[in-house]
Amino acid sequence: MHPVYIITTEHPLYAQVIGLRQKVLREPLGMDIHNDDLATEVDQIIFIYEEGQVVKGCVLLQQRDAETFKLRQMAVDPAQQGKGIGSQLIHAADLYAVQVGKHRIVLHARETAVPFYQGLGYEITGEPFTEIGLPHRKMEKLLV
Q1: What are the residues facing 97 on neighbouring strands?
Q2: What residues contact residue 131 under an 8 Å CB cut-off, 6+ apart?
Q3: Residues 7, 46 contacting (CB under 8 angstroms)
Q4: Phi, psi (rounded to 5 degrees) for 131
Q5: pLDDT (tens digit per residue) in 8-36
Q6: What element of type H or E holds 85?
Q7: What is the rounded CA–CA span in Å between residue 53 and residue 121?
Q8: What's the pLDDT tens digit per position in 41-77?
Q9: What H or E segment, with its residue span, contains residue 96?
């Protein structure tokens, strides 16, 4: 099986997705993902990178409009970063978006992640702003 695939919130590995996002995205900020409204994720596309029933990376696509998805909650286990997992997740999300007729993906990138997204064809589209206490940039990719 390919290590990147789509799951739903009902999938047994979804709990690992929540745990990974807590570890990578929330704990360093002193936040708890369980305080977030996760109910809307039932309608989102959840991509995971999994090896041996262990989720090593994830990213979600949220419907914005008929043309656009918002990419959100990108997380890769710190011990696995730099191994191409994030790139594989983004490529899978981009391909899926094209396959379902979307023409654009937007995202809010932490300033430290901007070069990663730029390397995958995403462009900065707005001024710096603060979200969850960290500097971010709006970015987008037009899909062909």
Answers
A1: none
A2: 108
A3: yes
A4: -140, 135
A5: 999 999 999 999 999 999 999 999 999 98
A6: helix 85-99
A7: 30
A8: 999 999 999 999 999 999 999 999 999 999 999 999 9
A9: helix 85-99
**Chain position carrying tokens 């008929």:** 66
The DSSP call for residue 126 is S
- Band (144; pLDDT cuts 50, 70, 90): confident
Residue 1 pLDDT: 53
Taking the C-alpha atoms of residue 19 and residue 46, their distance in angstroms, rounded to an integer, is: 14
- Identify the residue whose tokens are 């790139």: 87
Supply the DSSP symbol for 25: I
Query: What pLDDT does residue 133 have?
Result: 87
Q: Residue 120 in 3-state DSSP?
A: coil
Q: Which residue has the tokens 């037009």?
A: 142
User: Domain limits of the chain?
Assistant: 4-103
Q: Give dist(CA 36, CA 18) in Å, integer.
A: 11
Compute the Cα dihedral for 128, 40, 36, 143 and give only its sign.
negative
Q: Is 129 helix (H, G, I), strand (E, B) or coil?
A: strand
What is the CATH architecture of 4-103? 3-Layer(aba) Sandwich (3.40)
H helices within 4-66, ranges in order?
A: 14-21
